[in-house]
């Protein structure tokens, strides 16, 4: 979980840790899993941006410690495992090799998805590296998008190591998870994060969804694979998230209230988008966010543009102003995602 107050991060001691599961092992796994029940995708990403704070062009989208939105090459594997009479579950592995200016090596292996989802009948049960059941980030897959979701702003984890379950109902869905509370790396320092979310409405069917989440734990402050603080801190939150689609308009919002290491935290998040051209190939988005952490208020303003050049290639542009860092960023991205 990144610190929303970027002004304090540079004063802290950074401790680095390599990924728990070597990426090369999964590359070998891919070769053995090619079958009709498998989906394998190639992922290529070129991204860079100009920062007014540093007055330079940098090869990442927002922060150098974050793992997402860096020049990279990787794969995304989804394999369905079936028995004689029914589906047993799904194995998902998504990994990439990214350019990073952080650390001793310029090429950083990154493991994003790494979980097995068992169809247990009463619910789907997963174990590995996946999404905690908390807020809008639980249902918003933003690993390829430039505009940051709440988890990327320091309010939750985009992915975490642990176990969870979820079940769909006619009226909506319910999910719960128990994870390490460390994000991309895995540590055992008495840290944990318990979370649960219940939602009403199915966005693809009803054009709306309303979710309520609760979370509590002792979490580690991490930035990508970097451990910022050596010991866990208390963290608890309650949030309400909503998504609504009307014609070519899409709105997503979240309100989160909680406490972090004894201090109150607040998140007011809103993202609004409009799809244009045939099949929504052009999308324009705005994203204002108001935050409170460590006793201080802050905000960010973002605007994004996405154009689908074809079924496999997307171009994106983002303007993002971070009040805490006094930084305006102008970011461009080409993202290629093709089934092999």
Describe this structure as you would to a colleague.
The chain has 340 residues and is mainly beta. The chain has a single domain (6-339), classed as Porin, CATH 2.40.160.10. The chain is built from 3 helices and 20 strands. The protein has helices spanning 6-9, 23-33, 203-206; strands at residues 15-16, 38-51, 56-58, 72-82, 87-99, 107-119, 124-130, 160-168, 172-179, 192-200, 208-219, 222-223, 226-227, 233-246, 249-260, 263-276, 282-293, 296-308, 313-322, 327-339. It has a 16-stranded antiparallel beta barrel. Strands 1-13-12 form a 3-stranded antiparallel sheet, with no helix packed on it. The chain is globular and about 60 Å long. The two termini are 33 Å apart. Residues 7-21 have low confidence and may be disordered.
Entry keywords:
three-stranded antiparallel sheet; mainly beta; Porin; 16-stranded antiparallel beta barrel; 340 residues
Count of alpha and pi helical runs: 3
| Low-pLDDT ranges | 7-21
Give the fraction of residues assigned to helices.
Answer: under 10%
How many structural domains are formed by the residues? 1
Gap between N and C termini, in Å? 33 Å
Strand order of the largest sheet: 2-4-5-6-7-8-9-10-11-14-15-16-17-18-19-20
Q: Tell the overall outline.
A: globular
**Backbone structural class:** mainly beta
- CATH topology title: Porin
Question: How would you summarize the topology of this molecule?
Answer:
Elements: H1 6-9, E1 15-16, H2 23-33, E2 38-51, E3 56-58, E4 72-82, E5 87-99, E6 107-119, E7 124-130, E8 160-168, E9 172-179, E10 192-200, H3 203-206, E11 208-219, E12 222-223, E13 226-227, E14 233-246, E15 249-260, E16 263-276, E17 282-293, E18 296-308, E19 313-322, E20 327-339
Antiparallel strand pairs: 1-13, 2-3, 2-4, 2-20, 4-5, 5-6, 6-7, 7-8, 8-9, 9-10, 10-11, 11-14, 12-13, 14-15, 15-16, 16-17, 17-18, 18-19, 19-20
């Amino acid at each position: 979980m990144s610190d929303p107050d970027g002004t304090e991060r540079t004063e802290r001691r950074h401790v680095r840790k390599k990924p728990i599961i070597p990426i090369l092992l999964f590359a070998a796994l891919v070769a053995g899993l090619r079958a009709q029940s498998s989906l394998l995708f190639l992922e290529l990403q070129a991204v860079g941006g100009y920062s007014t704070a540093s007055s330079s062009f940098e090869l990442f989208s927002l922060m150098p410690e974050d793992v997402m939105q860096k020049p990279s090459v990787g794969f995304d594997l989804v394999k369905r495992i079936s028995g004689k009479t029914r589906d047993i579950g799904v194995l998902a592995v998504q990994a990439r090799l990214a350019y990073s200016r952080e650390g001793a090596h310029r090429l950083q292996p990154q493991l994003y998805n790494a979980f097995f989802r068992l169809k247990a009948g009463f619910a789907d049960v997963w174990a590995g590296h996946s999404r905690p059941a908390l807020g809008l980030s639980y249902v918003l897959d933003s690993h390829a998008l430039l505009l940051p979701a709440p988890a990327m702003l320091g309010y939750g984890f985009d992915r975490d190591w642990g176990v969870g379950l979820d079940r769909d109902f006619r009226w909506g869905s319910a999910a719960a998870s128990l994870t390490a509370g460390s994000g991309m790396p895995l540590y055992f320092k008495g840290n944990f994060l318990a979370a649960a979310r219940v939602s009403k409405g199915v966005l693809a069917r009803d054009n709306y969804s309303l979710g309520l989440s609760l979370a509590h734990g002792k979490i580690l402050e991490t930035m990508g694979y970097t451990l910022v603080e050596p010991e866990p801190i208390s963290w608890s939150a309650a949030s309400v998230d909503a998504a609504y689609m009307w014609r070519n308009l899409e709105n997503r919002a979240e309100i989160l209230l909680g406490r972090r290491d004894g201090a109150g935290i607040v998140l007011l998040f809103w993202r609004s988008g409009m799809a244009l051209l045939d099949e929504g190939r052009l999308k324009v988005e705005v994203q204002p966010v108001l935050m409170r952490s460590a006793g201080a208020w802050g905000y960010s303003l973002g605007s994004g543009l996405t154009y689908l050049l074809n079924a496999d290639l997307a171009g994106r542009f983002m303007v993002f102003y971070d009040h805490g860092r006094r930084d305006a960023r102008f970011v461009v991205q080409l993202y290629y995602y093709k089934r092999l």
